[in-house]
Write a structure and sequence with these properties.
The protein is mostly helical. The chain has one domain. About 70% of the residues lie in helices and about 0% in strands. It is built from six helices and no strands. It is elongated and about 75 Å long. It starts with 10 loop residues before the first helix and ends with a helix.
Length: about 130
Amino acid sequence: MIIQVNYADSLPILQKRLIRARLAIIKYIRLGVWVFPLNFGFIILFFHFLFGVDIVAVGDRTWIIGNIIFNTIVFVPLAIWAHLKLSPKNADKKWMNRQFRGNGSQITDAIKFLDEIEDFEKSDNN
């Protein structure tokens, strides 16, 4: 999305495109937190591909049930909480900008720079 931004466009159009790109980053990370509850699935795949072992068939039943319960108690609420916090309405909050440092901070910097240009143009016209 960033590559497709034409910086020769008018300022309002440019701002809208940068904001859309910023919101897309938030949406993708918001979707990505749903990987947390799949933690046990990654353990199963890890053992299968790295060692060729079916950990579900070989593993202790209490260990497997414990992992499922742990994932349900810890990772599902964590994913729900993160999904709710990572919302576009929180895009301007300081904590979210710190989280996206490197993953969207260039968009934030570009929006701030465009705001400065817009303020300068307004003061120049008055």
